[in-house]
Amino acid sequence: SADGGTLFLDEIGETSGPLQAKLLRVLQEREVRPVGGTRTRRIDVRLVAATNRDLRFEVSNGHFREDLFYRLAVFPIAVPPLRKRPEDILLLVEHFLRRYGRRERKPGCHVSRDAAHLLLSYSWPGNVRELQNVMQHCLTFMKDGKITKETLPSKLIVSYEENPDAQGAALTGEFEKGKSLKAFLRAKEKEYLKNVINKMGGDKVKA
Fold first, then answer.
1. Which residues share a beta bridge with 147?
2. Orientation of helix 89-103 relative to helix 127-141, angle to 10°
3. What is the model's pLDDT at position 31?
4. Nearest alpha carbon to residue 97 among 65, 67, 119
5. Is 119 exposed, middle or buried (CB count within 10 Å of its CB: 0-12, 13-18, 19+)?
6. 175 within 8 A of 184, measured Cβ to Cβ
7. In angstroms, what CA-CA distances link 110 with 13, 88, 97, 144, 189?
8. What angle do CA 202, 206, 207 make, to 5 degrees?
9. What's the rounded Cα separation, in Å, for the pair 189 and 183?
10. At residue 40, does pLDDT exceed 80?
11. Among 122, 137, 183, 189, which one is most buried in terms of CB atoms within 10 A?
12. Confidence band of 171 (pLDDT split at 50, 70, 90)
């Protein structure tokens, strides 16, 4: 089905040994035998694979084929976990609110200052998928088109209260209806950079 196009294999690190062997053969020979068929077919696909596992570690432990790893790792792209790129959190929140807000017939949703603070201070062990689920949760329980602290799952509040270091690390600001999130983030970025430069005594190179 993907011949002439792109084949995306998600969670490639979860594949079994026999399946890895079959996939390796496909990549080497560039041909497949359809289920129930008796002849092989040449294929031409761009293969993209993703995993949340450290495949080098899996190779060293014998859980992933080394030859398949090197076949796949032609152009690796490492995506840091969400906790290491907090600047993406509010952009993703806006995206999910638009996406699911239309589906739930709740357009124009916005986030309160307290809720934004909690979202930014949470570590997101489940990464983007967890954030996606939290936004769906919020849309179910919110009132008057506004996501507040009370709307968020209790785990975010508990995590915040148990981690005092995170309480001062998050960006804060009031989300106003109709205000561009990008404009808000630009303002906060400018504010943050000014603070860093001041702490470095005005030395922009050190900052």
1. 111
2. 50
3. 94
4. 119
5. buried
6. yes
7. 37, 16, 8, 10, 20
8. 65
9. 10
10. yes
11. 122
12. very low
Q: What is the pLDDT of residues 112-167, one digit of tens each?
A: 888 888 898 888 999 999 999 999 998 888 877 788 888 888 888 887 776 655 54
DSSP line for 47-92? EEE--SS-HHHHHHTTSS-HHHHHHHTTS------GGG-GGGHHHH
CB atoms under 10 Å from CB of 13, counted, come to 17
| Tokens 């008057």, residue located | 144
Q: Which two tokens stand for residue 49?
A: 């694979």
| Cβ-proximal residues to 5 (8 Å cutoff; 6+ apart), any chain | 45, 46
Beta strand pairing status for 41-42 and 146-147?
unpaired
